[in-house]
Design goal:
By secondary structure, this protein is mainly beta. It has one helix and twelve strands; from the N terminus they run H-E-E-E-E-E-E-E-E-E-E-E-E.
């Protein structure tokens, strides 16, 4: 009888330690079933550039296209002035400002974290306060969502 009780308790404990799913996250952390986590914000005085590293995780049940509007996505300083990127890198996809690409396309898989890096040139001594991500809604083509990430 004690062995049966021990096995039942063990199964209950193992069953309750599942992975974190989208329904377990507070709704303010998810935007269009995408979780955005800030990894780091670094200023390099040698190159006078600011680098913002993020992780994006899709909680969609199927792979989905992530379409980032590169010109609308900007880093803002304490004075509220937005700055364009010099480089955006998502996974293995890389876009430079001089390439004049309006959108970055990336295929997000369910629960697979993908790094997203914004590099801004000529940053100076300003303090970065937020990053505004603008990406297409997965449900409505042509409708774009704005997600503010506090830095």
């Amino acid at each position: 009888m004690n062995k049966l009780m021990y096995v039942c308790v063990l199964f209950l404990l193992l069953g309750s330690t599942g992975s974190l799913k989208a329904q377990d996250l507070p709704t303010e952390q998810l935007t269009d079933n995408i979780q955005v986590d800030l990894k780091s914000v670094r200023h390099d005085p040698k190159t006078d550039s600011l680098t913002v590293d993020l992780f994006l995780i899709s909680y969609s049940r199927k792979p989905r296209e992530f379409k980032l509007n590169t010109y609308a996505s900007q880093v803002f300083d304490a004075a509220g002035k937005g700055s364009f990127y010099a480089l955006i890198k998502m996974g293995r996809v890389q876009i430079r400002l001089e390439e004049r690409q309006n959108y970055l396309h990336y295929l997000l898989e369910e629960e697979v974290p993908v790094s997203l890096t914004f590099k801004v040139a000529n940053w100076g001594k300003r303090k970065a306060t937020k990053l505004l991500l603008v990406f297409e809604d997965s449900e409505e083509e042509g409708h774009f969502i704005q997600k503010e990430v506090n830095l």
